[in-house]
Amino acid sequence: MDSSPFIRGGKHMIQNHGLGFGLSTAPLMTSGRTRSISAENPRGDVGAGGKEASNLGVARKGRPCITLPQGATITLAEITGPGVLQHFWITVTDRTDKGYFVLRDLVFRIYWDDEAEPSVEVPLGDFFCNGFGTRCNVNSLPIVVNPTGGMNCYFPMPFRQSARVTIENQHAADINGFFYQFNYTLVDELPEEAGYFHAQWRRENITTEAVDFTILDGVIGKGHYVGTYLAWAALERYWWGEGEIKFFMDGDEEWPTICGTGTEDYFGGAWCFYEKQNGKIVETPYNTPYLGYPFYSKADHTRSDIFGEDSVPMHGLYRWHLMDPIRFENELRVTIQQMGHNSRALFERTDDVSSVAYWYQAEPHAPFPALKPVERRWPR
Q1: Which of 15, 186, 318, 366 places its Cα 20 to 30 Å from the Cα of 47?
Q2: Long-range contact pairs involving 20-29 (C-beta distance under 8 Å, separation at least 24)
Q3: Among candidates 186, 146, 179, 170, which has minimal Cα distance to 44?
């Protein structure tokens, strides 16, 4: 992220306030107090980790994980600030004997400063760029998913009064073996300009022809937009990604201030992501620090023993605006078109599109649209 707001008078305010380190600031000592919350120390208390017993005895991996009861909302972390969430790691099964879409059935939420409405509300998998209820590896700067399903987030998340992180199990069964760790720093103060992290999920199971898909709307206040994840199921033939992304900000109405040139262009690719392999044209996934196309599949493995593997093409893409945040003073709306090309001309498409928008802003924030019920979140 652009660190210039934290640099004053030649001093790096970002490190003094515990908001993070780069290689250049790694040697600098700070007054922050490092803490960590996991199943082994659920309150992050000083000198309180690893007290439970296993078959090997006390303090020998006695409580490394928890069970999520069906229908329950579990508080994973509750912290009194000021502080900064700096990294968290989560892993969980992606299926049970009741279904294959655990990553869409678990709802991840974060609340700042005792607010009643969450600032983050996203199906767990989609938050970590694992849409479609399917695992894939992601190798980017703020989101990393490693084999097998080790989900990591490095977005710095400052809070002044409190942070509360919850997970709701809307799956049809209890989920055993939910592992997590939240690493954070308690600080004396935060810079005035430190914004609060937000993330919101949306989905249109079938988009409307010639109507742009809304990634984010209703954002009021000052802030900056830092990322997009799309889980795009292509429902029509031929190339699916000609649509342009648009950022409407601070009074924009019919026309946006920022307009892209095509979906694959926005995610840093070109020419349909196509390469020739073994004589065939194929779309080629990739991961980079700031943008990527980590998931592409035309096969469904959830019930292949009964129904075969036929599926619509599924595309997962991320774009982080860390070096080029989209700054807004009063309001923001983000949309993307569903347009294709059939080698002769552009055409309007209807597809199945899910998105996660990631941004920072001053609180309070506008309430999010109601999250779709669990069955309407399941991938096509």
Answers
A1: 15
A2: 20/84, 20/86, 20/156
A3: 186
Q: Answer yes or no: are the C-beta atoms of 283 and 108 closer than 8 Å.
A: no
Return the half-sphere exposure (C-beta side, CA atoms, 13 A cut-off) of residue 25.
Answer: 17
Structure-token pair, residue 6: 């934290």
Q: How far apart are CA 33 and CA 187, in angstroms?
A: 7
Classify the C-alpha dihedral 325-317-371-217 as positive or negative.
Answer: positive
pLDDT, tens only, 244-271: 999 999 999 999 999 999 999 999 999 9
265-307 pLDDT tens trace: 999 999 999 999 999 999 999 999 999 999 999 999 899 999 9
- How many residues are present in the chain? 380
Let me know the angle formed at the C-alpha of 63 by 61 and 65, rounded to the nearest 5 degrees.
115
Both tokens of residue 224? Answer: 């900056």
Closest Cα partner for 157 from 220, 219, 227, 87? 87
